Amino acid sequence: MAPPSQPVRNTRQRVVESAVLVGCALAFLAACLLVRWPEAGPKKLSAEGLGIFVAAGLTLIIYSFLYRDNPLFKLAENLYVGVSLGYGAVMTWYLSLKPEVVDPLVFAPSRAALLDALAHRTVPILMGILLLTRLSRQHGWLSRYAYTIMVGWGAGIGIPIVVHSYILKQLGPSVRPLGGGFWDVAGGLAILVGTVTVLFYFFFSVEHKGPGRAVSRVGIWFLMLAFGASFGYTVMARVSLLIGRVHFLIGDWLGLRP
Amino acid sequence: MLYKRAIPLIIVFVMGLLAFVHEFVPHPLSAAFREEMTTWFRIIGGFGMFIGLYSLLHMHATRIRRKQLGWGYSLFVFLGALGMIVLGLVNEPHGPLGSAPEDGTVFDWFYMNVQVPCGATIFSLLAFFMASAAFRTFRARNLDAALLLGAAVIVMFGRIPLSAMISDVFPQAADVLLEYPNLAAKRGILLGISLGAISQSLRILFGIERSYLGGGSE
Amino acid sequence: MRPQAARRKTQAVSGKPQASSRCYLLASGLQLAACSLRPGALLAATLVLACTPLIAAELVAPEAASFRAYDRPSDDGNAIGVEWGLAPTEGEGVAYVLEVASEEDYRAGKFHTRRVPSVAAFKADHPEYYGFSPALKRLHYVHVEPAKFYRPQPRRIAEPSKEEQQKMSPTARARVLAGVAYEQRKERDRLAAERRRINGQTYYFRLAITDGRQTLYVSEGGQPKVVTAAGRPNLFKWGKANNLVFSVLFCAVIAGFIRAARRNPNLFIRKIAGLEAVDEAIGRATEMGRPIYFVHGLGGMGDLSTIAAVNILARVARRACEYDTRVRVMNNDPIVMAVSQEVVKQAYTEAGRPDAYNPDDVPLVAPDQFSYAAAVNGRMVRERPATILMMGTFAAESLLLAETGASTGAIQIAGTDSYTQLPFFIPTCDYTLMGEELYAASAYLSREPKLLGSLRGQDVGKAFLMIAAVLGTLLATLGLHWISDLLRAF
Amino acid sequence: MSTPEADLRRAAIARRVVYLLLAVAIVATTLVPTEMKVVPSPLSRKVYDRLEAMPAGSPILFSFDYDPSSKEELYPMSLALLRHAFRRGLRPIVMTHWLNGVGLCKELVERTAKEAGKESGQDFVFLAYKPGGSNLLLNMGESLKGAFDKDFYGKPTEGMPALKGVGSLRDIPVVVGIAAGGTTEMLIAYGRDRFGFDLGAGCTAVIAPDLYPFLQSDQLFGLLGGLRGAADYETLIGRPDTGVKGMPAQSVAHILIIALVAGANVYVFLIRRPRRKEA
User: Fold this and answer.
1) In chain B, what are the domain boundaries?
2) What is the 3-state secondary structure (H, E, C) of C315-375?
3) To the nearest whole angstrom, how far is the Cα of B108 from the nearest Cα of chain D?
4) Element at D140 (helix H, strand E)
5) For testing the chain D interface, which of B149, B160, B177 should be mutated: the one with the most D CBs within 10 Å?
6) In D, which residues are within 8 Å of C159 by CB distance?
7) Interface test with C, best of D158, D160, D164 (most C CBs within 10 A)
8) Are residues C99 and C208 in contact, defined by beta-carbon separation less than 8 angstroms?
9) How confident is the model at residue C49 (pLDDT cuts 50, 70, 90)?
10) How confident is the model at residue C29 (pLDDT cuts 50, 70, 90)?
11) Residues of B in contact with D264 (CB under 8 A)
């Protein structure tokens, strides 16, 4: 994951960089010890304390990418991908497969419970196993039977739900009477004009010439203001993430925050 | 060909029609049908998860086997995944057939001190990329981009508490921008996307759209 | 169906359960369209209400004929609807007492009572069942769920006490608790079935009006009038009729246009400004004699945006080959790469230069998100292309690509349906194909019936929405809620 | 035309200077203990008022649909919401639709429950995760205890005091969805519009502007947007925490980025461009 432009590195630069790397590692270890040492001598390192060191180390390694993409960063990133994969697999077992497949059938509390579980769960479990055939090359088509039922249901139920919640309910406020003070009427008109012009901008059956061109221009202005709002909010979001990490490094790791 | 292509398409159509019609029928039978179907999909979902995880691990495994570019790092993906799976299934107080690992287990330690910090930090890198892009490439090259950057500045300044201290006009300006032009445009986009989603559902039901079938030979 | 007759049919004491409820509903449904169109009727109704003088003290019961009970339409059969006309003497202190009794209780003369304030509970409060006709404002209305009066008896499930649970081993305890949970679930299902059975029986209703001092029954021929009804599951939610009509009509329009597009591929689509920008950019690359970069998004071959990207790639490759300019296509998905190689090779042969095609120009750069962006950036900075086209689905890495592309001074054109990334493409690129414009460009170029038909069909939907919004607001401001009621979603 | 290598190096330096500027701005503001008064926005207040208006003991469903990548933005508001729910004596039912968010959800619930002295199964229930997304919501709409027959700790949900009187989503008056992705729209279409509960939303600032159409159509009763939303809610419940502490740094960072964008544009359009015309 190299940063945008990858400067060509000669040996001199390589030496400097490895020296800087060792320096940073030592500084990190010193900071960790310093933080824990003054409290009445070397306290036994609790699991939680060790955890904060590891987390702080990984955070700094990932920020090293800002200087340049380096093996340490790639290692941390791939370790993260691996740990997430493992976590996903374990949690899928404990929260979905075990309670839905193993517990009702293998650990059924009574015969009646077992029969009831068999009645309701055999078909979906068989379809789940069918789904797994997608991984093999020649039997892959068997998985279609599981997919088609799910995709068919999703497409079928999707139509009335989308019409209900995203079209009719959204049209509701667009057909309210324009009433109240000047600003309410102006606001209502602005929303009506905005919605209609944006819809017209994405209208492809009529040439955008003459009046059509004016309407689609207005539509673009509304779109630009909306994307501007999203731009500003996205900046706010990414900055908050960085602030959170800085709070962790300064507060939880170094304990400097008041 | 019948059982590889025709029957699946028939199933899609019948299932879709049932799902569509049952939405309009208040009869208790239709509620029972919905509960049964959603119970099925809840169970199948667990197997679906495994397909996603397996194919990712498989990709990294082939990269290691074939020593492709960056195979060393794929080794770490494997180590991380297998380590977590072993730790998760050990789960000492309850064992693999007990309830999920709770606080204080090594599994939970790795989640809290490796997965959470890495995930949070990687995403926070974007703040830096955004700052540098803001300086080097975000130009008001035409009226549209100028409007966009103008609105962005109004929202960015209006949403921080500092601006409210100076005067109420800034937060109000941001609110007006969000509650009128932004609302109108996003509603227009939402209506457009919804019509697109309905037409895609229709194409799936009538078998015009088949790309989701996949699964090996035609 | 004679709607007028259904309304006037008086309800005999022991008449069969309200058979005409369905036609009553149909009648009110028809009336919705008829009378709200005639503003005159609206005016008449408000006049009648206004001039009913409030007679002091003396209590008068509502008209016996208007007191009726029937199965509530459009429901799962768990409720009975009871309605009665407005009494002349209504007001703050005045309330109604509705008496409910099952078969046995009615014979024994025992009734459950339910108090209804006279200023509330109008039939017009439930448009999802009865529509919007103004007549409903002059009728009181209440849902009655008999199972709330006649509760089924829950059975006690034996549970091991805390101490017993302590003594058991974890697995034994889990098994016992699972057994108890299973019993409790069975009991819950039994109670639900029992409630449905109770709700399905016939019930008898009497109505009285009281102002705290006097109580007066609605009576017919000296006796308090008794009406009966039973809840029955219905087969259609009338409140969702507008949803059904819109869905079916819209799907018919889409299917129609797809079939039309199959017969006549050059169905009209307006010129797409973005495609002209692409042609100009190819021209610029030819003048400067530097390559064109085509950067795919993260989507697979199944995504609409990737299909659109490949269609645009076909045109770019053919045009570039005519002007003898090299096109390099960046990929992150093996299938998309294979398809792109095929498309570029075919475009070169069409342009009469099959020899110019070189597979290395369409490489698989890197598989996952950020390494793909970094690798493409490295190539862009080294090779400094004149034109960069980014088409498909993008995520956070769009910022990395657009920033580096802009800093190399190239003309950048982006096309994506990822609305979260558009705010970053617009200020960095010279032109941006936004959302559906990308699909329109793809349909414009490929003339594929599926894409063409859907696009034109969706346009009809957009036209309907535009007209409905403008007309609806206009009419609503003038006080006519015809369109607003039609679009109400329940 | 300068050589590509020179351009390359200059670009790399410019980029790193900006990175440093941003890092210094945030670290400095975090170190200097500054207090910043937060005036809660109307949309955040609506969420607060809705929870305040709920009678004690009524159930409330929290769906924390985020994972570690959005933790820094959504964990503070989730913490404030749960603290408020426990203080009001409500019965939180906590779940997530995101598999990788289960651990965060567990730590959050256990921490706030211990703080408020509440007991799992008695005062709240942690259902954690089940796959299915919109289908899971439809399933919960018919029977909540059918969808989740066990809670995270393996205890059966049937007969659990925390779920007394809660047969399905129809019996839950208020649901609050905290989203890092598209789950708010899903909660509206497959939940609120069908089962009639009031839906409040919290989300990363990236998505906040896209939810305004649903606020105007009353499909959402309020919205907490990003870290600012958390700061608003912490101020409303009178327990300032990470949200409020982050506001000074947020303000400084915003001003820096505004300066970068405005400055660069002013430099390019007012200073450099006219000179090129003269040459």
Assistant:
1) 1-71
2) HHHHHHHHCCCCEEEEECCHHHHHHHHHHHHHHHHHCCCHHHCCHHHCCECCCCHHHHHHH
3) 8
4) helix D134-142
5) B160
6) 159
7) D158
8) yes
9) very low
10) very low
11) 134-136, 138-139
**CATH H superfamily, domain C64-235:** Immunoglobulins (2.60.40.10)
Q: What is the mean pLDDT of residues B156-165?
A: 90
Tell me: do A38 and A20 sit in the same domain: yes
A190 touches chain C (CB under 8 A): no
D47 contacts D176 by C-beta, under 8 angstroms: yes
Best of C75, C78, C407, C484 to disrupt the D interface (most D CBs within 10 Å) is C407
- The CATH number covering residue D61 comes to 3.40.50.10160
Instruction: Map out the domains of chain C as residue ranges.
Output: 21-57, 64-235, 241-265+452-486, 273-447
Q: What is the DSSP string of B110-158?
A: HIIIIIHHHHHHHHHHHHHHHHHHHHHT----SHHHHHHHHHHHHHHHH
Q: Looking at residue B61, what is its pLDDT?
A: 85
**Domain C273-447 part of CATH 3.40.50:** yes
| Beta pairing partners, D174 | D60, D198
| Contact in structure between D64 and D231 (CB atoms under 8 Å) | no
Q: For residue A123, is it within any domain?
A: yes
**Are A186 and A258 part of one and the same domain?**
yes
Residue-number span of the structural domain to which D118 is assigned:
42-246
Domain enclosing residue A132, as ranges: 108-174
Instruction: Dump pLDDT digits (tens) for B102-142.
Output: 877 889 999 999 999 999 998 899 899 888 888 888 888 88
CB contact under 8 A, D159 and C180: yes
- Chain D, window 210-249: residues with a beta carbon less than 8 angstroms from a chain A beta carbon: 210, 213, 216-217, 219, 225-228, 242, 245-246, 249
Q: How many residues does chain D have?
A: 279
Contacts of A211 (CB under 8 A, 6+ apart): none
Determine, yes or no, domain membership for A5. Answer: no
pLDDT mean across residues, chain A: 86
Q: Is D258 helix (H, G, I), strand (E, B) or coil?
A: helix
How far apart are alpha carbons B186 and B169 in whole angstroms? 24
CA-nearest of C315, A74, C25, A135 to B55 is A135
Interface touch D145/C489, C-beta < 8 Å: no
Q: Do B28 and C76 touch (CB under 8 A)?
A: yes
Of D70, D205, D242, Cβ closest to residue A236: D205
D130 in contact with A at a CB cutoff of 8 Å? yes
User: Which strands sit side by side in the sheet containing D198-203, from one edge to the other?
Assistant: D125-129, D91-96, D59-65, D174-179, D198-203, D223-225
Q: Which two tokens stand for residue C2?
A: 């004679």
ipTM of the shown complex: 0.89
Cα A215 to Cα A176, A188, C268, C461: the distances in Å are 22, 18, 20, 18
Residue D155 in tokens: 């205890």
Judged by a CB distance cut-off of 8 A, whether residue B45 touches chain C is no
**DSSP output for C455-478:** HHHHHHHHHHHHHHHHHHHHHHHT
In a domain, D29, yes or no: no
Q: B97 and A102: CB-CB below 8 Å?
A: yes
Give yes or no for D94 touching A (CB within 8 A): no
Question: Nearest by CB to A169, which of D73, D204, D217?
Answer: D217
Q: What is the pLDDT of residues B58-78, one digit of tens each?
A: 878 888 888 877 788 888 888
Q: Are both A153 and A205 inside the same structural domain?
A: no
D49, part of any domain: yes
Q: How many domains does chain A have?
A: 3
Residues D228-238 have pLDDT tens digits of 999 999 999 99
Residue D107 lies in a domain: yes
Instruction: Report how far residue C243's alpha carbon sits from residue C487's, in angstroms, rounded to the nearest whole number.
Output: 9
Domain count, chain D: 1
- Using pLDDT thresholds of 50, 70 and 90, give the confidence band for residue B212: low
**Whole-angstrom Cα distance, residue D143 to residue D148?**
9
Q: Which tops the pLDDT comparison, C388 or A5? A: C388
